[in-house]
Amino acid sequence: MKKAALLAGLAAATLFGAKVLASDLFDRINAGRYQAILADCAACHTKPGGKPFAGGAPLQTPFGALVPSNITPDLETGIGSWTYADFRSAVKTGVGKDGKRLYPAMPYPAYATMKDSDVADLWAYFQKVEPVSNRVVSNQLPFPFNIRATMIGWNLLNFSPKEFEADPNKSAAWNRGAYLVNGAGHCGTCHTPKSLTGADKGDEFLRGGNLQSWFAPNITSDPHKGIGSWATDDIVAYLKTGANRFDIASGPMAEAISHSTRLWDDADLTAVATYLKDVKGDGAPAPTPVVATDAAMTAGKAIYLDRCSACHISSGVGQPSLFPTLAKTPTVNGTDPTSLIRVVLEGSQAASTAAKPTTPAMPSFGWNLSDADVANVLTYVRNSWGNAAPPVTAGQVKDLRAALTR
Amino acid sequence: MPSLSPSRRQFLSSTGMLLLIASAPGARAAEHSGSLPWKPFAALPPTTLPGGRWYVFSPEEARTVEAIVDRLIPADELSIGGREAGCAGFIDRQLAGSYGSSERLYTQGPFAAGLPTQGYQGSAAPTRRYREGLDALNKHTRANFGGKAFFDLGAAEQDQVLKDFETGKVDYKPAAGFFNLVLQNTMEGFFADPIYGGNKDMAGWKFIGFPGARYDYRDYITAHNQPFPLPPLSIAGRPEWKTGDK
């Protein structure tokens, strides 16, 4: 009898212990899944319509093409043979298994600030992802960039890994926001301008960057070029639903919202907004707008009234949730008109989120407007209703049209 | 009181119809979830033919049509005439498209006479009707006006010939139908968007005060009893779009 009770007790203890362990592992995998959403790993490592994390579509960098690797736990073609140390080193220092150097298209300079506990959770999750056999030749760069060892020099110049340190003088929300924006969220990968070597210009943090024929706008608190006029709630709504009372996401940001930020916890989005409201712009005053009597302005106004005003309204205010506001918005007042030219030429479709499933789209005007027409209408938009930005030239339109239709 | 239950015949025929509908392959709709399909640069621009040449008409046919359209819409103090507006070029390009060969119409027999209200009921497509009609017109004037083609006649004589065609007073049975065809196409050329070759500089629209291919009047909807301030707009734009220095 005693023996039986002892055995039963032992069995119960074993079961209970296993359960605790299982539950702990589940929590870590689940936390890791959230880290993968925060870091938007799928954006690069999942091909559109492909198996999750089994390798992505080629990234066109100024140096050549890079294909995001297979990060499923497949032994042969994925990271199945990696250890946690290999994984941590790849994510946080850009040095993969066997000392293989990663290119900073993988945003390890941002992930370097992630806490080890978060990276460990991410590792727990990626071990449980379905292994997919898919061999990816990542490095398709031309000489000399195809020599991975050149990244040793790049890292010496541009990379000083440092885990995030909270600022005790700021609120918990601010610190959480700073951690997310600089780390997993890697906002600066697109929104911070790049140096000649492709590294973030640290002193121009989040002041807008050009990549893959898009301009990621200035998202500092700059009231003219940035999102200084957006309230915290506006930023949260934008990241959660893809739209707020001013703007609707399109292009790569629509993807970032669809894959990532719409799934973030509300508290994290509020933290991000709190932090972004405190990121300083360049402090430069708004430029003087091009005068309304300028030939480009009068021609642009005629085109705007005939082709744009039905949706964006003659005063540029747009329609909430349907057509973006053009008056006093960061993309419109940005130094670089690439995204504006692009959406006029090829059209655009809004992000699809559960909250905003309509995906209103802008038609393409590339067939109907000449390079000069596009330049003039954008010069008008960028210098009306309180906007002020350098005029757009027909040459800029011509170059982008060629790049997009190549 | 009639029975509410369906008869055997009704039941069989309705079931048969149901099966027929269910098995039709074309009845399957495309399904989309998430966002709607979208492609960059998606557009269906209108198909147009470049001007500066004749596609269907021979030189003599072209001169004849130009002379006709200039009598149907003569230049006066209100507007330019049909010739200057490009109506003949419009008709030529119209005939070069699907219209000229009645590509989208049923054109097989039987060819019943039909009532005047039923329009043309014959077997010829518009291009053939033009060829035959223009030939008949010039034969008629050459026979009756000292060997002159229609375009060599004076305006009064041309008007008389056109009236005779309109009322069928000539030795050409389809004369009235031909006249009405040309009249219809001339009006289309005078008022269609300039991208199709007629309505030069939107003259037809300026003439009648039509604002053109616009689609938003919200700024003006409350401005009662005031003229609409914007000039007409073609699909291709309007002169105000250009800065003039290019």
Major β-sheet strand ordering of chain A: 1-2-3
Silhouette of chain A? globular
How far apart are the termini of chain B? 84 Å
Let me know the largest β-sheet of chain B: none
H/E element order of chain B: HHHHHHH
Number of strand elements of chain A = 7
Mean pLDDT of chain B: 89
Structural classification of chain A: mainly alpha
N/C terminus separation of chain A: 83 Å
Beta strand % of chain B: under 5%
Number of alpha- plus pi-helical segments of chain A: 16
Explain this structure to me?
Chain A is globular and about 70 Å long. Chain A is mainly alpha-helical. Chain A has 3 domains: about 20-130 and about 145-160; about 175-275, no CATH class; about 295-405, Cytochrome Bc1 Complex, Chain D, domain 2 (Orthogonal Bundle), CATH 1.10.760.10. The mean pLDDT of chain A is about 90. In chain A, the strands form 3 sheets. Chain A has a 3-stranded antiparallel sheet, with no helix packed on it. In chain A, about 45% of the residues lie in helices and about 5% in strands. Chain A contains 16 helices and 7 strands. In chain A, helix 7 (about 170-180) packs across helix 11 (about 265-275). By secondary structure, chain B is mostly helical. Chain B has a domain at about 60-105 and about 120-210. Chain B is about 40% helix and about 0% strand. Chain B contains 7 helices and no strands. Chain B has helices spanning about 10-25, 60-70, 85-95, 125-145, 155-165, 175-190, 205-210. In chain B, helix 2 crosses helix 3. The radius of gyration of chain B is 26 Å and the shape is globular. Chain B starts with 7 loop residues before the first helix and ends in a 38-residue tail after the last helix. The model of chain B has no long low-confidence stretch (mean pLDDT about 90). Chains A and B meet through helix 12 and helix 15 of A and loops of B.
